[in-house]
Structures are given as structure tokens and as C-alpha cells.
Amino acid sequence: MQDIEFRRVVKELPADIGNTLLETPMHVQVNASEIRLRAGRKICIFYENQLYFLDKILKSEEIRECFRSLCDYSIHSHTQEIKQGFITIRDGHRAGISGTAVYDENDNLINLREISSINLRIAKQIYGVSNSLINRLNGNIGKLLIIGSPASGKTTLIKDIIRNLYDRVISVVDTRGEIAACLNGIPQNDIGNADVFDSWNRQDGIISAIKTMSPEIIVCDEIGSNSDLKAINACVGAGVELIATAHGGSLEEILKRDIIKKILMTGAFDNMVILKGKSEPCKVESIIKVSDLFARIRDNSFSNMSLVDRVNIFSSIKTKSNSN
Amino acid sequence: MIGLTYSVALKRNQTQIDELIQLITWLKIDIRYNQSQLGDMVNRICSSSKFNNLNFLNNLKNNMMDMPFPNAWEKSISDWNSSISQDDKDLLKSMSSILGASDANGQIMALEHVEHRFKISLQSAREVYNKKGKLFRSLGILIGLAVFVVFM
User: Fold this and answer.
1) Domains defined along chain A, listed by start
2) CA distances from A96 to A87, A258, A274 (A)
3) Torsion of CA B126, B131, B132, B136, to 10 degrees
């Protein structure tokens, strides 16, 4: 029940702000996907592609109190998350935060101060949302990369895929606690029989999972950093299949990222699924076979990409072919 | 009896400050190495037998169900019927603005300052107990004997 999810999120806020939010009309509560709290501005709720504004204007102190409350008054337990701009809260919901960045003398981001905005994203568990995708792939769901823009339903889809693969040995590397949402070691989300590596960074989590849990499939969220490449290579080397998500609005967008090109070159993924976007969460725009993609690039049929990008991709494929 | 009561109160003051210092050590370790949430820390502390003289901890656990941690901490200390001085109580209350309010290093630095001040209080409590504890007991016995003699 979505309304319960809204109320669960609201319970994590200070009582006065939570009570204000509970005055929201029921149809907005039921369909809410985001609650945006901004200093000096009205509370805004995103639902069914519409915005609903509450009259309450939040003061800076109230935003700070919301931040502390969302951290369960334990900021030290969330420092790694805060540095990445979010806090995972109970039941797998997530609060994105923005504020003034604090850097140390070596230019490393060490903290956020003067929190100015909080975006509470209401996590959903939609049973059966991955069924049609699994059918379209004839059950060959391993070695899958799901691509979508923020709030396009990547994590929701991946959670349902895990549930559907209950008869496989799966390890979930839950870097940001969004997939399993463990609390005291117990997953708050239904993730079937998967083993969870909670709050591990992806590289350490994937390598540790391979060594310790003998998984058939490893699932992780939002790949796309240089450190992921080594771990993905380890997966390929160990014969472990990988299901992952990555940020990107379209195929063209994602192929502009060098690291994604390198990841695709590892052979870790057979299929890429592009999601439609925020307006139609979890809906599949297209499924692309990675081998077909490479063939299309070789055939020079990527007319809407710049020549530089085509040459770049093509040369990297040639390099791999030569080394093989 | 009265002398003995005063003497026991002095001893209890010493024991409570000693346990408060142990509590701060526990908190520092939990914050630095486990980075536990305050709720989990309080649950673990309450289930430990090390802090039997710090009754406010059980109230804290209950108060945390109804109010934010800083308010719960301050209320449980205000309601605590303890032997420690008002200055020490205020010092203990000030931890509401330290615990959970910053990263681990920030909290540990602030907790070390509080710990240092409690250690000074403990030293002085020991001195007071050594000086006055015996005096209260002796006076109690003497007055008791005197009363006994008068009524005999």
C-alpha cells in the first residue's frame, strides 16, 4: 500500500513537519513518489507527474532538524552516505540532500553543511513488474544492464528481478542500502533468497561475494565508476553473471561515457534494457543485445552519434579483437 | 543511621561518576569502530550490567520512543534521582548536543572533553569520600552511642 509508504517516510521526520505532511489529500499521499523539503520554500510533493504544494514554508533550522531526524540523530553512522549526497532511511526509502560542500586540504569532499534541500524518494516494491521483461528475454535474465534516468524505476525493477530469481544463488551488493534496505541485518525489502552485502563499496562487495558466497548471479546498483571495472572483470573471470543498473537517459547518452564503453567491452553483459523514464517508471523503452550494438557500431549505422564517438567505440572494439 | 546514609550517598556519587566515565568510553568505542546508530547503542547499553547505577538509561530508552534523541536525553537526566552534583548533571545533559550531532571524530573530541571533566569530578568525589565518609560514619556511631547512654 503506497499510502502506508508515504506515512512511513513521514514518520522519519520531526513530528511537527510530519503532521503537516499528513494533511496532504489522500490521493496525493497514495501516488506520491517524492517529497521535496527546501529552506525558505513551500513543501512540494511530486505525484503522478504533478506537483502539490503545502502552504508550510520551511525555515533553515527546520531543514537541519529534518536532516538530523532522517539520520536518526546519528550523523556519524551516515557520513559515507552524506558525502555522496544521500541518506538511506528505514524501509529502503532515500533522502537526497544538497547543501554547502566542505572539502579538506587535499580537495576531498568531507562533509555537507548548511543543508538547503532534502528530496525524500519513496521506494516502491511492485510485485511482478519485471515479469514481462523476463518473458521478453526468454528467461535469460543474467548478464543484464538496466539503464534509466533518475526515478525511472531501475531499482524497483531490479528488486523484482531478484524476487523472480528465487531459485538461483544471488548476492546483492547493496552499496546504498536501496535494494535490500537492511536494518539490523534483516532486509526490509522482499529480495527472495539473496545474500546481502550491505553498505559495501561495489568493488570490495563484488570481490568478497565471489570469494565467500559462490554466487551464480551478483546484483548491484548504479555502476559507472573506474573502480567498478576491476570488480566486473573479476565477475567475468569467475563466471559469475552480473545484473546491474546505470544512469543514462538514452543509449546515445550512456555510450558517451568512456567507463560504460569499457564495461560493455568486458563481456559482462549480454543485454541492455533502456527504461522510458520518470514519467513511466519501470517501463521498458528498448532491449538491445550488446553484440548487436557492437555490430551496429562496426557497420557505422550510428548516424546520430558524433564521428569522434563512433571512432572511439570502433577503435576500442578493434583493440579488443586484436588482443583476442 | 544518618551518618551511614550520608556516607553511602558519597560512595554512590563516586560509583555513578565512575560508571559515567565507563559509559563515555563505551560510547567512544561504539561511535568510532561500529558507527552504530544511537538507538542501537542505547539498547546495547541498557542490556549491559555495567551501568546498574545509571538508572536514567532505561528512561532514555523509553523516552526515545516518544521524542527526538536530544530531548529524550535531557528529560531522562532531569528526571534522574542521582547522587551526582548539579554541575555534573549539567555536564551530562550537555552530551545531548554532542551525541550523534557530527561525524565520529567530532563527537569523540567533544566526549573526551566531557570525560576529562568527569575524571576531575571523580577525583574530588574520592577525596570527599575519604575525608567525610569516615567522619560521617564515626559521628554517626558516636551520636548513636551518646543517645543510647542518655536514654539508659
Assistant:
1) 2-121 (3.30.450.90), 131-323 (3.40.50.300)
2) 6, 26, 24
3) 120
- Cite the beta strand spans of A161-240 per DSSP E: 170-174, 182-183, 186-187, 195-198, 217-220
Residue of B nearest to A113 (CA): B102
Residue scoring higher pLDDT (A314 or A72)? A72
Mean pLDDT computed over A189-199? 91
- Give dist(CA B9, CA B131) in Å, integer: 14
Taking the CA of residue B96 and the nearest CA in chain A, the distance in Å comes to 10
**What percent of chain B has pLDDT above 70?**
94
Q: Tell me the C-alpha distance between A262 and A226, whole Å.
A: 9
Assess contact for A9 and A87: CB atoms under 8 A.
no
Q: Which residues from chain A sit within 8 angstroms of residue B35, using beta carbons?
A: 76-77, 79
Cα distance from N-terminal residue to C-terminal residue, chain B: 19
**Interface with chain B: mutation pick from A64, A77, A104, highest number of B CBs within 10 Å:** A77
Smallest CA-to-CA distance from A141 within A157, A165, A119, A124 is with A165
Give the closest of A73, A75, A184 to B68, CB-based. Answer: A73
Chain A residues touching residue B107 (CB < 8 angstroms): 76
Most A CBs within 10 A among B31, B38, B98, hence the mutation to make, goes to: B38
Checking ipTM against 0.85, whether it exceeds it is no
**Chain A residues contacting B via beta carbons under 8 Å:** 14, 65, 68-69, 71-77, 79, 111, 184
Contact B103 A75 (CB under 8 A): yes
CA separation for the pair B42, B120 (Å, rounded): 25
Bridge partners (DSSP) of residue A268 are none
**Tens digits of per-residue pLDDT, A208-256?**
999 999 999 999 998 988 889 999 999 999 999 999 999 998 888 888 8
Q: Note whether A76 contacts B100, CB cutoff 8 Å.
A: yes
pTM: 0.72
Under the phi-then-psi rule, with left for phi > 0, alpha for psi from -120 to 50, and beta for the rest, what region is B130?
Answer: alpha
Contact criterion met (CB < 8 Å) for A73 and B103: no
CB B29: neighbour CB atoms within 10 A?
Answer: 12
Which residues lie across from A121 on neighbouring strands? A34, A94
CA atoms of A182 and A92, how far apart (whole Å): 8
Q: How far is A260 from A229, CA to CA, in rounded Å?
A: 9
Angle between helices A258-265 and A307-323 (to 10 degrees): 30
